[in-house]
TrEMBL record:
Keywords: Cell membrane, Endocytosis, Glycoprotein, Lipoprotein, Membrane, Palmitate, Receptor, Transmembrane, Transmembrane helix. GO terms for cellular component: external side of plasma membrane; melanosome. It comes from the Eukaryota. PANTHER family: N-ACETYLATED-ALPHA-LINKED ACIDIC DIPEPTIDASE, TRANSFERRIN RECEPTOR PROTEIN 1. The lineage of its organism: Eukaryota, Metazoa, Chordata, Craniata, Vertebrata. This is Transferrin receptor protein 1. Stearoylated. GO terms for molecular function: transferrin receptor activity. Homodimer; disulfide-linked. Belongs to the peptidase M28 family. M28B subfamily. It is a single-pass type II membrane protein. Residues 370-472 form the Peptidase M28 domain. It comes from Scleropages formosus (Asian bonytongue). It is found in: Cell membrane; Melanosome.
């Protein structure tokens, strides 16, 4: 009867018979991060430690009452017997139903076992979301309101919010407060990093034949300081092919000062192509390479191998026009003028065009703050997609930072409202991240990844970048038809790149771009204002921002709504096969006898193992039981391992941060194997047969190791090497 009464009380009060509580800690550190699950019985909660005593008292009270009223008429006795039997039957039925309900409730987040036969397989029942995919898309669209976007543009569109300044900290506090209002359990982490800035007393200068042409207000982060002098050469976008084109014309590049256009490549890659050193070809604080800058990190003095030994300086379009006006020499190829400065005649430069560059940047330690909020999942809360945006900028940074921060906050507001008010229950968690020091090379992002790399492994399964999502409008007559989908390689200055190439987390960035492509001419300048963007977007910035929020929101919702992650690992088959084919062809063309004995079967077998493992995984997915929680989790874990296991284990993140063998940079990559073979064929002095054999072996075993992890359990390995 007590159980029946308790059950009835709970039915009307809406209290479950048992509950499961998950705790996903915000601190993210390896030794402290954990998922806590507690099961609590309603009987324990109601009775407490003295529950048995209260129960005995109730029984004594009932016994005394019965003795006092034992003298009843036969009619009353008969009535009491019938009533007692009726109550007993009702109590039994309610107890049975409550017990059955308790088992089903407990199965939401924990395994439920059917039957008592030891030979029977455990049966898992999974919580089902109350909203289907179409419901979610409609809800999200309705939550994204133009007035909110306008308000966020005003709140986060400060004139200046450079990393490590009071304005940056003010904006970080605003983001934190908003996450708190959205009940997203916000937290933050702080890093003390070394950042460059302009010298307050000695400006950077550009001189042409002794005449000062400009004193730039911008600068290239982590450039070497001092003075450089030499002949001025125009090298288009600074790509390898551009420098080869100059050499084919008989132009000596030695000791020259190179003028290159913005776009196509990151600034760091341009300088890396001009010299073997560069303006920090990496990300994060270059003075703590491979480890985080927490609390004035005390390590022996170190610096990234990517720091430059040459000077680099950004200049404005006006300064570039003045230099071209004074340059002589051959006319530049016509293709090098396309989309360039109006009314400017492009010259390649001459021996008498002497330029002096003076860089006086100062290095200072500054505190930067990353801010986070979380919407916790209901099935796998310890698996999460990260959505992030750069918060800082040099100057206004409206397109570079304000738009992305607005998208981040509006998505956080919309999705948290969907959970609170509309019954949205994501299977996995969503972390929202506001990064600082993005302008210096994704410093805040990389420091966080370095600090929590072990915690994030096989937990963070995707990263979606909101940086620079609006860069132009494709000019077609009908707005509904102006979407042309283009896939492009991820550049090293992309905020998603460290997630992919450093941490092995599948990542994506996207943007609306104009007819000239994704290069936005005002990035990193004082002209990156809302007025400029509105002009380019035909005053429809808000509409495009809402569309971008929907794109990012759909990706995130798909990743946390579906039973299985929508990450197609078989796409890597064609990528690896392409490299294997190129390497095989180039090896067969080598004249070196020592290389002719190289057995390509090793690499081909490793690729074959990967191909079979990915095919087997697809078969498992197609034949999977989506109601089996454990099976879905195992399949998802296998999917998540692929990107991480494409990071070469044979190079140090301190020396080579981007260890991905396909999308990284360095001698461990498959592209470098192809380049090395081409260098050997052309008898280049930097080519080495022994070094290539080492590269070949390590790349082979990286692919084989990835295929082993993809295949699942140890007894399912397909090792034919």
């Amino acid at each position: 009867m007590d159980q029946a009464r308790s059950t009835i009380s709970k039915i009307f009060n809406g209290e479950p018979r048992s509950y499961t509580r998950f705790n996903l800690t915000q601190n993210m550190e390896g030794e402290n991060s954990h998922v806590e699950m507690k099961l609590s019985s309603d009987v324990d909660e109601e009775l407490g430690p003295s529950g048995g005593e209260h129960l005995n008292q109730n029984q004594n009270h009932m016994r005394q009452s019965y003795l006092r009223h034992s003298k009843r008429s036969p009619k009353n006795v008969c009535f009491m017997v019938i009533a007692t039997l009726l109550i007993f039957v009702i109590g039994y039925l309610i107890g049975y139903l409550a017990h059955h309900k308790q088992d089903k409730d407990a199965a939401i987040c924990a395994p439920a076992f059917a039957g008592s036969d030891d030979n029977e397989e455990p049966v898992q029942e999974e919580f089902e979301p109350t909203l289907d995919w179409e419901d979610l898309k409609t809800l999200l669209k309705n939550k994204l309101i133009p007035d909110r976007f306008e308000a966020s543009f005003r709140s986060y569109g400060l004139e200046s919010h450079e990393a490590g300044t009071a304005a940056d900290e003010k904006m970080a506090s605003l983001v934190y407060s908003s996450f708190k209002d959205y009940r997203m359990n916000p937290w933050h982490d702080e890093h003390y990093v070394k950042l460059q800035s302009l010298s307050p007393s000695s400006p950077n200068t550009i001189k042409f034949n002794g005449e000062v042409i400009g004193t730039p207000r911008g600068y290239a982060a982590y450039s070497a300081t001092g003075t450089a002098e030499g002949r001025l050469l125009y090298a288009h976008y600074g790509m390898d092919s551009d420098f080869r084109s100059l050499q084919d014309r008989g132009i000596d590049l030695t000791g020259s000062v190179v003028l290159v256009r913005a776009g196509k490549l990151s600034f760091a890659e341009k300088v890396a192509n001009a010299a073997k050193q560069n303006v920090h070809l990496g990300s994060g604080d270059p003075y703590t390479p491979g480890f985080p800058s927490f609390n004035h990190t005390q390590f022996p003095p170190a610096q990234s191998s990517g720091l430059p030994s040459i000077l680099a300086q950004t200049i404005s379009a006006n300064t570039a026009a003045k230099l071209f006006d004074k340059m002589s020499g051959q006319n530049a190829p016509s293709t090098w003028e396309e989309g360039g400065l109006q009314g400017v005649i492009y010259k390649l430069g001459d021996i008498n065009d002497n330029v002096t560059v003076e860089v006086n940047n100062v290095l200072m330690e500054k505190k930067i703050t990353n801010v986070f909020g979380v919407i916790k999942g209901f099935v796998d809360p310890d698996r999460y997609v990260v959505i992030g945006a750069q918060r800082d900028s040099w100057g206004p940074g409206f397109a570079k930072a304000t738009v992305g921060t607005t998208l981040l906050m509006e998505l956080a507001c919309a999705l948290s409202e969907m959970v609170k008010n509309d019954g949205f229950k994501p299977r996995r968690s969503i972390i929202f991240a506001s990064w600082s020091a993005g302008e210096y090379g994704s410093v805040g992002t990389t420091e966080w990844l370095e600090g929590y790399l072990t915690s994030l492994n096989l937990k963070a399964f995707s990263y979606i970048s909101l940086d620079g999502t609006i860069r132009g409008e494709w000019k077609l007559k009908n707005f509904e038809q102006n979407t042309i989908l283009l896939f492009m390689p991820m550049r090293t200055d992309d905020a998603s790149y460290p997630f992919l190439a450093f941490s092995g987390i599948p990542s994506i960035s996207f943007c609306f771009a104009g007819n000239r492509g994704p290069d936005y001419q005002y990035f990193g300048t004082l002209e990156d204002t809302r007025q400029k963007l509105e002009y380019i977007m035909s005053t429809r910035t808000t509409q495009f921002a809402m569309a971008a929020a929907q794109v990012a929101g759909h990706m995130a919702l798909r990743l946390v709504h579906d039973h299985l992650l929508r990450l197609d690992v078989s796409k890597y088959n064609s990528k690896i096969r392409s490299y294997v084919s190129q390497i095989n062809r180039l090896v067969s063309q080598q004249s070196s006898s020592s290389l002719k004995n190289l057995n390509m079967q090793w690499l081909m077998s490793a690729y074959g193992s990967f191909s079979r493992a990915s095919s087997d995984l697809l078969d498992n997915i197609q034949n999977s039981d989506l109601t089996d929680v454990e099976m879905c989790r195992n399949i998802n874990d296998r999917i998540m391992r692929v990107e991480h296991n494409l990071l070469s284990p044979y190079v140090s993140p301190k020396d080579i941060p981007f260890r991905h063998i396909i999308f990284g940079s360095g001698s461990h990559t498959l592209s470098d194997l192809v380049d090395h073979l081409n260098a050997m064929r052309n008898n280049m002095p930097n080519a080495s047969v022994d070094r290539f054999r080492n590269q070949f072996a390590l790349a082979t075993w990286t692919i084989q190791g990835c295929s082993n992890a993809l295949s699942g359990e140890i007894w399912e390995k397909d090792n034919q090497i």
